[in-house]
Design goal:
heterodimer, A: 332 residues, alpha/beta, Rossmann fold, 2 domains, 4-stranded parallel sheet, globular, B: 332 residues, mainly alpha, ABC transporter involved in vitamin B12 uptake, BtuC, 74% helix
């Protein structure tokens, strides 16, 4: 009963939000302020989009704009979600990476709007000089991701409310579900080595906290993977170890490591690898909340069983990306 | 008779080098990702025109100017140190510039202007420090200066390593490493106009001192007898050469081998170490740099760092020169 009334309220909220977005839709030309504080005026709904960052490429697919994309970032074939949701993207010309951005290549695509990460600010200034409209975004946390999605919606005329509602709804769901629950001590093992981990400033830490765990490395303030020692890991003695996506080692490597015997998580076998068959949920991609949901299903399986997680993930990808991921992609 | 045929040969090489520069420059203007329409290349109301005037032309001119000034600076270094392998790294200019760039990337956000200014300041600071250290030493002379350079180089390298260790590997460290590999990919009109006057000033200074630099190639006592104030002239020549090289490198990042090689080729071709050979070396350097940059932007789907290409061309060429037996006039 309670769940049904909650659903009804959500539905009303969704409808209201959609209504607002539709009212704004006709509003071109539209002026938005991007992540660098630049005011960008877009005259008409852009029909040719360039995305220079995997998070915005994924977000544009989720907003139903994959057909408008004419160029994307380099190394697109390392992102399985493109092949699953919009394989035609893999054929698009690439505009380089944040390390070597291809200014001429981007200009040659004559985009109506190029979406680039904040660190390409210099490239954005040059492109603006050439007359290419550029939107700088900085999706580095869940809140910034939501800002980015809203900004992309406003700049393209696409309706972002459903995606934003999904985020808000799942965040609220997790908060309610896990309120008052014990929070197991979790160690997040980094992708290059299990002796690297994420401190409190990294998105991965937020993912674990939202999923009902306590990051044992929260005392570290580094904004990148921090190397730690075996001793440090033994001292933290985590109850659960989560292996980051795209890890270069396996769960078995950890379990077999003699130096780690005696750690609670190793003794009890509570070592889980984050499924990465679709997207790296431990980065602020539009489906990032699935990362927290997956953590919750592993830490609090009695409240939120794995089957329910798999159903939620399937629903998310079929609603926003138009495909149903196999069971195998959702486990690892 | 011999003298006359020598002059004739020199003239032929001058003409050949001139043609090579013009051809490489034409190629550099024609090759790129953007299909420039030549009819509207100078019309800044069209995208073609803007790309040509803001990116393509500045990039080609920068490659030309950088190749020329690095080679001229190389002539000065090799002359002053009487060492065929002398280059700006000998007295710490390259490590100074790298340290400056790394500092800007770590602490100032890595914007193009900040990085260029810090790299320029770093390169100049290293040479000034080496010259000051040399005056403090009890023994004066070229060897002392060389040793002072090694000291400065070592200190700057160690500071650079410290910065690299502290850098975030994904973004900052990658940016530092890419800077050290050099690239013309993000040269714009603004950057060209900022660096050009300093390159011109440095190269002009070296040219004005060309006879004195030639005399510095003799033993100190001989040079002194010929009326050259050795210590002062050496410092002045190095300052001008470093100015030219640092200004180029501040915009492009480190470029290997251009600076070392063209002086050798020029001396080999003309069979003389005369001062006019310096200008020929400059032209050869410009042609080499332009060709390397054309390859860097066209051999792969994304830009290749230019030092990869210059080293790939330069190393076999250097070996071939060694095998040809008779090196430059003053190689002994």
């Amino acid at each position: 009963m309670k769940r049904r009334s909650l659903l009804a309220i959500l539905l009303v909220v969704c409808l209201l939000a959609t209504g607002v977005a539709v009212a704004e839709d006709g509003g071109f030309p539209v002026t938005v302020t991007d992540a660098a504080g630049r005011e960008v005026t877009i005259e008409a709904a852009p029909e040719r989009l360039v995305s220079g960052y995997y998070i915005t490429t994924s977000a544009l697919i989720a907003l139903g704009l994959e057909d408008e994309l004419v160029g994307i970032e380099a190394k697109a074939n390392s992102r399985p979600v493109y092949a699953l949701a919009a394989p035609e993207l893999l054929e698009l010309p690439n505009v380089g990476s944040a390390k070597e951005f291809d200014l001429e290549g981007c200009a040659a695509l004559e985009p109506d709007l190029a979406v680039l990460p904040l660190r390409l600010k210099d490239a954005a200034d040059t492109l603006s000089e050439l007359g290419v409209k550029v939107l700088l975004v900085n999706p580095e946390s869940l809140d910034l991701l939501k800002e980015t999605v809203a900004l992309l919606g406003a700049a393209t005329g696409a309706d972002a409310s459903a995606l934003l509602d999904f985020c808000a709804q799942k965040e609220a769901f997790l908060g309610e579900l896990l309120a008052g629950e014990a929070r197991p001590r979790v160690y997040l093992a980094g992708n290059s080595s299990f002796l690297s981990t994420a401190g409190r400033a990294m998105y991965q830490s937020a993912m674990i906290e939202l999923g009902g765990g306590e990051n044992v490395a929260a005392e570290l303030g580094d904004s990148y993977w921090t190397e730690i020692s075996y001793e440090q890991l033994l001292a933290w003695n985590p109850e659960v170890i989560v292996i980051a996506s795209d890890a270069e080692y396996s769960r078995e490597d950890l379990l077999a490591d003699e130096q780690l015997q005696g750690v609670d998580a190793i003794e009890s076998g509570r070592v889980y690898a984050l499924p990465d068959g679709v997207e790296a949920w431990d980065s602020p991609v539009p489906g990032a909340l699935l990362g927290s949901l997956w953590v919750a299903s592993r830490l609090h399986g009695e409240l939120y069983p794995s089957e329910q997680f798999a159903a939620d993930a399937r629903a998310f990808y079929s609603q926003f990306y138009g495909f149903e991921p196999d069971e195998a992609l959702l486990t690892k | 008779m011999n003298r006359r045929s020598n002059a004739g040969r020199t003239r032929r090489w001058w003409i050949a080098a001139g043609i090579a520069v013009v051809a490489a420059c034409a190629l550099s203007l024609a090759v790129g990702r953007f299909p420039v329409e030549w009819r509207s290349a100078l019309d800044s109301d069209t995208m073609s025109g803007r790309v040509f005037l803001t990116l393509r032309l500045p990039r080609s001119l920068m490659a030309l100017a950088a190749g020329f000034s690095l080679s001229v600076a190389g002539c000065a270094y090799q002359g002053v140190f009487r060492n065929p392998l002398a280059a700006p790294d000998v007295i710490g200019a390259a490590s100074g510039a790298s340290l400056g760039a790394a500092g800007a990337i770590l602490f100032l956000g890595g914007g193009a202007l900040a990085t260029a200014l810090c790299a320029f300041a770093g390169g100049m600071a290293a040479v000034v420090a080496a010259l000051l250290l040399a005056t403090l030493a009890r023994r004066r002379g070229m060897v002392t200066l060389l040793l002072a350079g090694i000291v400065v180089n070592a200190l700057f390298q160690s500071a650079l390593m410290l910065l690299k260790a502290a850098a975030d590997p994904e973004r900052q460290l990658a940016a530092v490493e890419y800077w050290i590999m050099g690239s013309f990919a993000d040269v714009t009109r603004g950057k060209l106009l900022g660096a050009l006057p300093w390159m011109a000033l440095g190269a002009a200074g070296v040219f004005l001192l060309r006879r004195q630099i030639l005399l510095l190639g003799l033993e100190d006592d001989e040079a002194r007898m010929l009326g050259v104030p050795v210590a002062r002239m050496r410092a002045l020549a190095l300052a001008f050469a470093t100015l030219a090289a640092s200004a180029a490198v501040s915009v492009t990042g480190l470029i290997s081998f251009v600076g070392l090689l063209p002086p050798h080729i020029a001396r080999l071709l003309t069979r003389s170490g005369r001062a006019s050979t310096m200008a020929l070396a400059g032209l050869i350097g410009a042609a080499l740099m332009l060709t390397a940059d054309v390859l860097a932007r066209s051999v792969a789907a994304s830009e290749v760092p230019v030092s990869v290409v210059t080293s790939l061309i330069g190393a076999p060429l250097l070996f071939a020169l060694l095998c040809l037996g008779r090196g430059g006039g003053r190689d002994a």
